[in-house]
Amino acid sequence: MGGLVAKMQVQSSGENIWNKLFVKPLKSLAVGEENRETLRSMLIFEPNPDIRRVVFIACPHKGSEVAADLAWLASWLVKLPTRITGFASEIVTLDPGQVLASSVTVIIRDT
Predict the structure, then answer these.
(1) Which residues contact 110 (CB under 8 A, 6 or more apart)?
(2) I need a labelling partner for 14 at 20 to 30 A (CA). Which of 37, 40, 44, 91 fits?
């Protein structure tokens, strides 16, 4: 997973991740300002300017069959922090139409 974390340090998300989860733009999302900033920092990011070069050695950028087989175990063992599930529930409760249906399923399952 270290290679994937390194990759995230040198790429820009733009609004790609945001657009896969939400229908509305960030500025019109029906949440408090603190939650809006938390969402922005999690889903919209820029490359780390202190990193000039990354070398990947045996990094499974497209995933791994072993990881896919163990995903059920990870979803059973790992739970989202209550702060994240709390504002995720707030988003769905205040305006369910702002979240894509696939995102709602993940939010509801993890709360």
Answers:
(1) 79, 80, 85, 88
(2) 91
Question: What is the Cα–Cα distance from 92 to 107, expressed in whole angstroms?
Answer: 8
DSSP 3-state assignment of 110? helix
Residues forming a β-bridge with 22? 99
Other CB atoms within 10 Å distance of the CB of residue 13: 14
Where residue 29 falls (left for φ over 0; alpha for ψ -120 to 50; beta otherwise) is beta
Per the CB < 8 A criterion, the answer to whether 102 and 109 are in contact is no
Whether this model's pTM surpasses 0.70: no
Mean pLDDT of the chain: 77
**Mean pLDDT value across residues 13-29:** 86
- Residues ≥6 apart with Cβ < 8 Å to 44: 13, 14, 15, 17, 18, 26
Place of tokens 């609004």: 15
